[in-house]
């Protein structure tokens, strides 16, 4: 698989002297599902902004698609969802916000309309399309912001806590859309709970803003001592099956745990 993002020695220091990330190097390849996990304050959001070209790192660089270090030159290929949906919703109606990306890429109104309708169906936005974004609840804003990023079908999704204010029903719908996305997906989250259902790989950001681990999901989420050092807990099934199944056999998702129990494996 070809790299779509290649970061070299990223460091970012804020004006007050706080170093948010330090000498971070990583590669994201096409089609990968990666979760960037770390405790609150570890520098995940700063890393997302640097990878998305929304801040200039103090040191280091990012290559995009093996072509350029200029994020603006490939902006239409990067879908960056910020943690606060209000940062993403700025048009008069929800429909206009979702249509904005396709319109900027020169897609026809018919194509944009089809994408809007499909996303509205998937994410439960049908009754909200003609509302102004400021009239939405927190969860509705979150869903509208996710739809706006998905609408222009970017090659890379950089998603900061896309489930934050969303209830369980819509969380599953967003999860399915992320898993089904054709391009690379990088999920930034402080919790490992949904990671095994979405990601193939985990990058663990340590509390000092460096990479504490980078490996397969099972390898990272079953390393209880490593997670404890970073103020994190394993996913629910890993906690549930501790002492019942060895780490290389423990089910990582609720669906896998259910199937294992139905099969009488434990």
UniProtKB/TrEMBL annotation:
Membrane topology note: Peripheral membrane protein
Protein function: Probably part of an ABC transporter complex. Responsible for energy coupling to the transport system.
Official protein name in the record: ABC transporter ATP-binding protein
Any one GO CC term of the record: ATP-binding cassette (ABC) transporter complex
Residue stretches making up the ABC transporter domain: 5-233
InterPro entries found in the cross-reference section: AAA+_ATPase (IPR003593), ABC_transporter-like_ATP-bd (IPR003439), ABC_transporter-like_CS (IPR017871), ABC_transpr_CbiO/EcfA_su (IPR015856), ECF_ABC_transporter_ATP-bd (IPR050095), P-loop_NTPase (IPR027417)
Primary site of residence: membrane
Domain of life: Archaea
Pfam families assigned to the protein according to its UniProt record, in alphabetical order: ABC_tran
UniProt similarity note: Belongs to the ABC transporter superfamily.
CDD domains, alphabetized: ABC_cobalt_CbiO_domain1 (cd03225)
Subcellular location: Cell membrane
Organism expressing this protein natively: Halonotius roseus
UniProt keywords, alphabetically: ATP-binding, Membrane, Nucleotide-binding, Transport
SUPFAM superfamilies for this protein: P-loop containing nucleoside triphosphate hydrolases
Molecular function terms, GO-annotated: ATP binding; ATP hydrolysis activity; ATPase-coupled transmembrane transporter activity
Family annotation (SMART domains): AAA
